[in-house]
Amino acid sequence: MPDALNHASSPEQLRLLQREGMLSEEGLHRGLELLAETPPAVEWRRFLSVALLALGSALTLSGIVFFFAYNWDDLGRFAKLGMLQGGVLLTFVAAWRLGFEAHSGRFALLASSVLVGVTMAVYGQIYQTGADAWELFNAWMLLILPWVLASRFAAQWALWIVLANTTALLWSAQVLNPRDFWEGLLILLPVAAANTAAWLVWERGALKRSWMSARWLPRVLVCWVLFLLTGATTFGIFERGEGASGLLAAAALAVTCGLMIGLKPGGRRDLFMPTAALAAGLWAADAALIRLIFDVMDAELLGWMTMSAVFLGEAAMAVAWLLRMRAAEVTK
Amino acid sequence: MSQGMNRASNRALLDQLASEGCWDTSRDDEAREKLTRHLTHEAPHPWYIRLLSSAGAWGTAFSVTGLLGLLGLLDEEVFCALLGAVTLAAAVMLRRATGQTHRTFPVQLALAGAVTGQLLFLAGVADILNGNGVLLVAAAMYAMLVVVYPDRLGRFLATFGFCLSLGVWIYDVANDVPLHLLSSLIFPAAVWLMDSEAALERGAMGEARAPVAQGLLGSMFGLLVFALIDRNTQGQLIWLTSIGLTAGSLFLAWRVREALPAEDRPGPSRTAALLGGLAVLGALTWSVPGIVAAIGALVLGFHRRDRVVAGAACVFLTGFLVFFYYDMDMTLLNKSFVLIASGGMLLGARYLLSEPEERLDPLEVFR
Q: With CB atoms counted within 10 Å of each terminal CB, which end of chain A scores lower, N or C?
């Protein structure tokens, strides 16, 4: 059972103890002083180290990408490819020697993965292979997969997921070549399903592997899925045409929201997930209601009245439900 | 007691207080019971729930305003202002009566009422005054709401509204003086509010400290983004804002150093390297002062272990950096050299700041 004493403290909690007569005025002052202490020097060093490493790596890699995007004529093709392959080798050996547990090793491997893609792009630039863009991203994604699996680094996985999504979307556009908007909408659904599957796998993996416990990646993943499905559903509601694509998107949105609300990996719930699900679900429901009242029924007065009440009621009910979930997490 | 972005647990804090004679450990169980109740019924909502609640309140306010407009009730400006004032007053009273508990419907009703009241009141006053006086009225209204509206989200929005109205008023009356200059004043104010946590939280307005500081930082970023969007009229004197924000960030870095125990403080050479590096960064990126401001906010967020501030700082830092490099008036090749040089400088700084035993001999890698 989670113990409230193990919960992170706050000025509100200290003030509560003082109001209840458990903590003296002097105790409150001392408690607030302790609570407001800056992190110790060792944590500041770690923070600076990670911040400088992340920012420095991002800027250097962007510079390398820009350098080769410029396609400098004075630099021969062997020099270009040699520099890039040397970079891949250098960063990979550095990662190997620094170890994948160290931040520096992980960032070196991430740099290596990025440089693989730049190498392939430069190869295509030099030899004009005529390949479609999706083929570049597909090959890049497959080539770095062993490193991604070995890396135990969320940012490395984020890069791979971005590449997988780019490959899928470009392949859909360049190979399937949808005839109209509605066919394009249908293509988005498998992409959303694959990302949902990736999120579920991540949640399961996070139960056993501490490096997967950071919440930013699953949160970004579900936001992307909800963006795809909510966008498709909203278009389905407001655009006239073959309604089946919109209905399918709405059904997929409902299933995804249900999963996000119902899923409690390891018995613990990340409250962000049901909040995002409720926001997306309510957005779609409100869009349908607005279409029905303002467009189909053409009842403007009724529409403004209804929407005033609906916005107020749904927000209050959603917040109440979310807070009940949070209370259950604290007290169970 | 603490770790990373996590604040000390109640257990660690009470143990420390007990060791100093300020806490009676026999009351642990009683404290656990009270704190459990607080965490389940009264603790502040996470930022994403506040965002959902805020979206609902704005949706309600726009719908109610649309309804009143359709009924023709907004045509008479005095009535509109009075209706807004009454609605706002009723919302404040309702929120104060609700207190800190999570009775969500009255809390949401109060927030929606407050936003609707503000919209109606300001729309009416704007028609009556027919000039920029409405901006001063708005600033006064938002300042009052910060004091009387006992809600984190309400105070955050009121702080944002206050800065916006005051900024636009200054812009209007001071002969098109750029709005971004205000950020040089807003940032030190936010630093002071967050850095003086222990002292301010003891006072009567202690609960307003965090949302006001977050609202100030949000306003600062808003003004700096606006300066980039509207560069023709807002681009002047940007160097002055850069100097102000760099000075603010240097002051913050110095305050952090002073807050560390004497034996843990970086020595003179490292302090000079850190402060000098920050000053050089401010000078190099003077055309986009948001970069140094976001770095300052990131340090502030870590210093106070405020995830919302640190997270927002990361997002804005990324955005400002992308803009800075995109906007450089040079070829892609020269840009790439600048990027590689800046990245290399940061990686070099990391190497120099690390402990000697943590460093890896570059030659050792290939042995």
A: N
